[in-house]
């Protein structure tokens, strides 16, 4: 999640620099600089640790996506292999059936050929016998004829016998042709089944190779994920240590800032609690107090009002300017100490990211006085980047929701 103002908490806690009074003793200034440097270094360390951890988590996410993709591909290949296996089994069954039909056709053709050959042999013998009769044997048969009927039917019998043999041989030849056509069709079907089986076997071999490659890739990805998760866990520990160091450094700086603020809270400085708006009435809010913010996930310590660059910014109440200078993250800033109210609490306001300011430290200001103009100086990256006013309210040194006291 991109935060409202990245790093603003670290800079916000750097109020020690903002709260320096005129003629600040050298020792206090040195202490202030040391605390600021510690906070800045802790912030940089934490940001770097966070960046490395985010990079590691992105690598883990990428690797997990790769694993999911590979697993999806594995499922696809397994489904394809199952389909190919089923088709291959069917192709083998069809091939066996086609081979059986072809073998049966060949056997039937061979049997028909044997029948044809046998009939041909009988016809050949009969033809030979008739040839012998025509060569002289017929005279001996004619001498045995006892009547005219036998004489007339002799030639008819010979012609009928010849015709019958021709008919039988023709029928056998037609049957053999049909059987041969059946044989050719069965052998063609068997050849197609063999080709289909060969293609399926090639497909199966290719899918098996792909499956092996995917298994290797999945194993490598899981190994990488295990390594990356271990690295991310180690980085998380480093990040947590850096976060604690950062929070400790900023807490020390914040404590020092409150001490510096006490310098401006003289007994005669009182707060009427009659607050007015910091910008023209009706300005909308883009980031509320308490929204997620800060490099360590802490909440937003102020209220953000987007406005055009150069829009006047007003003091929300009478007070003394306790700081007016440029600060990291805050950019051009003004802090006003309003003093102690009848409720016994001390009030101060901070205005950040100004393009420029019109007051100086130690200057007394009144409610509604222009103290500067809206800008985008300092750190204004993130969802709330651009021209806006960052307004903070401190009560007894602690930030609170300014919108509970200041109208807008």
Q: Can you give a write-up of this model?
A:
This protein has 408 residues and is an alpha+beta fold. The chain contains four helices and nine strands, in the order H-H-H-H-E-E-E-E-E-E-E-E-E. It has helices spanning 8-12, 15-18, 26-143, 148-262, and strands at 303-306, 312-314, 319-327, 331-340, 346-357, 364-365, 370-374, 388-395, 398-400. Strands 1, 2, 3, 4, 5, 6, 7, 8 and 9 form a nine-stranded antiparallel β-sheet that branches. Strand 8 (388-395) and strand 9 (398-400) form a beta hairpin. Helix 3 runs antiparallel to helix 4 (148-262). It is rod-shaped, with a radius of gyration of 53 Å. Mean pLDDT is 79; it is low at 1-25.
- Please tell me how large the radius of gyration is: 53 Å
Which percent bin holds the helix content?
A: 55-70%
Number of strands: 9
Q: Roughly what is the average pLDDT, rounded to an integer?
A: 79
Large-scale geometry:
rod-shaped
* SSE ordering: HHHHEEEEEEEEE
Number of helices: 4
Low-confidence stretches: 1-25
Structural class: alpha+beta
Q: What proportion strand?
A: 5-15%
How far apart the termini lie comes to: 28 Å
For the biggest sheet, the summary is: 9 strands, antiparallel
Short structural description:
This protein is an alpha+beta fold. The protein has helices at residues 8-12, 15-18, 26-143, 148-262, and strands at 303-306, 312-314, 319-327, 331-340, 346-357, 364-365, 370-374, 388-395, 398-400. It is rod-shaped, with a radius of gyration of 53 Å.
Lay out the secondary structure.
Blueprint: H1 8-12, H2 15-18, H3 26-143, H4 148-262, E1 303-306, E2 312-314, E3 319-327, E4 331-340, E5 346-357, E6 364-365, E7 370-374, E8 388-395, E9 398-400
Antiparallel strand pairs: 1-8, 2-7, 3-4, 3-6, 4-5, 5-7, 5-8, 8-9
């Amino acid at each position: 999640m991109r935060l409202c103002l990245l790093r603003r908490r670290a800079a916000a806690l750097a109020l020690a620099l903002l709260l320096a009074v005129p003629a600040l003793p050298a020792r206090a200034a040195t202490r202030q600089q040391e605390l600021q440097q510690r906070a800045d270094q802790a912030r940089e360390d934490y940001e770097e640790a966070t960046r490395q951890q985010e990079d590691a988590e992105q690598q883990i996410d990428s690797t997990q996506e790769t694993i999911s993709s590979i697993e999806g591909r594995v499922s696809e290949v397994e489904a394809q292999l199952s389909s190919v296996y089923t088709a291959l089994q069917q192709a083998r069954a069809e091939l066996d059936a086609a081979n059986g039909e072809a073998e049966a056709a060949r056997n039937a053709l061979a049997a028909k050929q044997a029948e044809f050959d046998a009939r041909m042999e009988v016809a050949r013998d009969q033809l030979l016998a008739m040839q012998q009769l025509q060569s002289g044997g017929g005279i001996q048969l004619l001498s045995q004829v006892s009547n005219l009927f036998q004489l007339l039917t002799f030639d008819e019998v010979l012609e009928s016998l010849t015709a019958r043999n021709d008919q039988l041989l023709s029928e056998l030849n037609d049957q053999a042709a049909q059987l041969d056509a059946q044989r050719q069709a069965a052998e063609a079907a068997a050849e197609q089944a063999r080709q289909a089986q060969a293609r399926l076997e090639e497909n199966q071999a290719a899918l098996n190779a792909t499956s092996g490659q995917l298994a290797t890739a999945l194993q490598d990805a899981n190994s990488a994920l295990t390594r990356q998760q271990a690295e991310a866990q180690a980085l998380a520990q480093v990040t947590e240590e850096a976060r604690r160091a950062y929070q400790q450094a900023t807490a020390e700086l914040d404590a020092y800032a409150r001490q510096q603020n006490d310098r401006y809270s003289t007994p005669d400085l009182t707060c009427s609690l009659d607050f007015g708006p910091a910008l023209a009435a009706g300005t909308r809010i883009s980031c509320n107090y308490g929204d997620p913010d800060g490099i360590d996930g802490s909440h937003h310590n102020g209220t953000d009002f987007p406005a055009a660059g150069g829009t006047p910014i007003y003091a929300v109440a009478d007070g003394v300017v306790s700081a007016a200078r440029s600060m990291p993250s805050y950019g051009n800033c003004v802090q006003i100490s309003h003093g102690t109210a009848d409720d016994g609490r001390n009030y101060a306001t901070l205005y950040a990211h100004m393009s420029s300011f019109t007051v100086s430290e130690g200057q007394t200001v009144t409610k509604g006085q222009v103290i500067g103009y809206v800008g985008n100086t300092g750190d204004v990256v993130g969802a709330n980047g651009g021209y806006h006013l960052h307004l903070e309210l401190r009560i007894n040194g602690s930030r609170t929701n300014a919108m509970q006291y200041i109208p807008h």
